[in-house]
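Troubleshooting log. The previous structure file for this entry was overwritten by mistake, so regenerating from the original sequence record. Sequence copied from the archived sheet and checked twice against the printout by T.R.
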Amino acid sequence: CLSKANQCRRQLVGSSRARTPRTGNKIPKEWFRITAVDAVGLPTSPRKILSRFRSICGVIGRQKFSILQDDIKLVPAAEKDIAWLMFKESFDYPTEHEDRVRRAAFKVMGNAWKNFKTKLVGEFVYNPANPDPTEKFPWITA
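Regenerated output below.
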């Protein structure tokens, strides 16, 4: 009975070790094949490809688009072309659906980019006690 009480107390108090901080998503070295897309252009097959699609597009959007632009529509075509080439290095998709896949990929990239900019403002502009954002996000050069 005493050991049971210790277990209950241990569950309430928790571990003394701190959790390691979460690392950011990275673009994997492997190559993914999209076999089917829906009407919007998002991948539907194989089953787990959508989460890979979203995370890789998010990384590309955060790293390749300048944070100095006010809107995703104002990002220069050259930056978008570089982002698309990076996308094509990670995915193989049906060529007949390239326009839809590209539109869906840029929509996901744009949302990730916008959310990243919002996070930067909240963490570093409104909270000046935080250090330089280039320490946490080395790809930011501006």
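Strands lie at 32-33, 36-37, 43-45, 91-92. Archived copy saved in two places this time.
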